[in-house]
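WARN no homologs supplied; continuing
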Amino acid sequence: MRDPDDALREHLIDNLDGENAHRGFAGIAQDWPSELRGTRPDDLPHSGWELVEHLRLAQRDILDFWQDPGYTAPDWPDGYWPDEREPPSDDAWDASLQQFDDDLATLKSLIRETADLHAEIPHGSGQTYLREALVVADHNAYHLGQLVTVRRLLGAWPPG
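OK structure emitted
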């Protein structure tokens, strides 16, 4: 018998991938000029690097919460934002993009494999797996919009 939540799972994954209502992460972060990764446009509080790292760190935090019964939340806001406005190297930028993609793939697998998305996370305080997936999708979409704005204001849009 078909899982009644199959459609919900696929909608969640589509939302995490982007491309329906907005571009996905790769489509926004790819080909970001290295000399602009640490630049904050006038009157905006974050550079591309700060937003990319924040997306990576926040997504990883929820992934850790989902999977780890011994989970401890990072300090807010320090544990969710990089210390520097620019990446320490091109390799650090590339590693951040790759880790975001890898963690997103893991999250999508968990959405597919978790028996009951409506169940409460046993080590949480009432959060469900579905709620956490929705939080990631919402948070990512919000900051992906900011990344587009930063790129536009820096004259680096569209990518490539």
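The two ends are 46 Å apart (CA to CA).
OK
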